[in-house]
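User: structure tokens for this one?
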Amino acid sequence: MMASSRRVGAACVFQLVSVVLTLCLWADPIKGDSHKLCSRCPGDLRNGTAVFNYCHANSTLVADGRCCVQKQARQEVVGLDLWNCSITKMEELLKVASTLVVLDLSDNPFENISFVFRGFTRLQEVVLPVTIDCPEGAAAWRSITLEMNKRICQGQKNTCNGTTEPSNLCPEYSVCEPDGPGLFQCSCIKGQHGYKCLRQDGFPMWMFLGIVGAGTMVITVFLWVTQRRKVKTM
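Assistant:
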């Protein structure tokens, strides 16, 4: 009787765990700020748009609301269609700056949004209202086209490889790294930090102890030999 009850209890626990796992697998994996962006405006990706085409051209991507996300890491938003969302400020876009590749901001009442693209190092296509210039202008993009009421900026250039080399502005012991369209930052090389990367990482404790230890050993041996000679002479 007791064994039968235990088997029934174990079966119930197993079924409960199975239900919980199933719910977790079917639950929307996009959470937090990224999910809010995907549902920022009603509707799904529009057929034939830049974000739609990019999403459907890659089998590792999937559409989710106004977003295009990675199938295996759906919190990673690579495409975002905010067409006609009545957006005036784009600070919330900074939440997906490091992953975004294609962005559609057409038909929105913007003023100037160039500043917001710092950190968008993977961005390759931006669709803007025709009245808005591409971030940092023609020097930051390989192609700029006008299409009806849209301005399309494509192919973000590597700012650190331009004709006017910004790396010359970086101090010694640092390297130039792209930081968005037309933007760059100077990062200290390994082992350097601080103002103008002039400080070295940490105090070389092991080297110091090695030198002190070796010096102590030499002095000890020297004194021991000297004392033995004195004893022999006496």
